[in-house]
């Protein structure tokens, strides 16, 4: 099965620094990278082997922001056509000439872009047109929607519909939810659990059942089960920073058991302990990926792959470097070695030989509830004591983590935010 690589690139000063990547076996996507720009975007001797020998690399340029005032669009802190990005766009063309797909990423941790696209038709046009210009001017092959602000579903579906109308069927649209956004809330009492609509029966999430707390404000199951769900190529799902755990298959299994198609769910991880809470050593991650690939080989197109945040320091960690060195991959850099180590698991024709249980499909809502309540705790980016101060007030861990993220760890501000959002 031949596949492709995807790369996320976040721009800061003059070039690329961080990369997210993901590997899968679908013809559409195999490996997703994320990159933050502080140096030249592509060190060509380093990227060439990956491009030619392990599949096509697809790159996502991040992050595009729609700031206050129509036309005030930036690639991180500067205009996309700022001269500091000349090298970036030149190397983008070089990658595209090598068969690499290039996407932009809209949103992320900086909020406001989607809110500004949620106004009247006139307001939408005013903010959308500069985004359209960036996509068309730089000949981007798609857009990754990273919605980390509370907006209604109609805001997202209007954007999806417009992107598809303007750029055609080959334009890639992906999304980046946290893992909890795809998992049913087990605390809904039985008498309040909504039945599955007849039209939504089968291998799909229940669009009426509330999910665990997350960042986006709308229902991803409702989106997936609508006519717009077919427009989403896949979901770069974040299993880190308190929103999930990739140290075993349990979180991923729960999402699939809830009705999601494996080939559309990419396992998002951090590639270095410094990139966020929940880092999984490459040795364990390889084992998890082998089990997921084996378990879902005959289900919904197979395991959707791995997304890693970020590339610039991936594998640059003692434990990972030792493991990669033992594999004798003949890699030029630690980053390339980290990618190749996963590639050896994800991209071989022969499936890894591991013992794994059969996937739990077509199970009852009560069985799903039991799975969710037994999930291993996701490691949060804040000390357990800090999170606990909010949990004892009656909020869930996910709500506490989200509030601490929004207030940079200030417990008092986070508590005030939570009481405002969720009156007791």
UniProtKB/TrEMBL annotation:
Which top-rank group of organisms is this from? Eukaryota
Please, one GO biological process term? carbohydrate metabolic process
Give a GO molecular function annotation for the protein: chitinase activity
GO CC aspect terms:
extracellular region
Note the CDD domains from the entry.
UBA_scDdi1_like (cd14309)
Tell me the PROSITE patterns matching this sequence.
GH18_2, UBA
The cross-references to InterPro entries, in alphabetical order and at most eight, read:
GH, Glyco_hydro18_cat, Glycosyl_Hydrlase18_Chitinase, UBA, UBA-like_sf
Q: Which residues form the GH18 domain?
A: 31-332
Where is each UBA domain found? 381-421
Q: Where is this region: Disordered?
A: 186-206
Classification via Pfam families: UBA
Q: What is this protein called?
A: Chitinase
The organism is: Pseudopithomyces chartarum
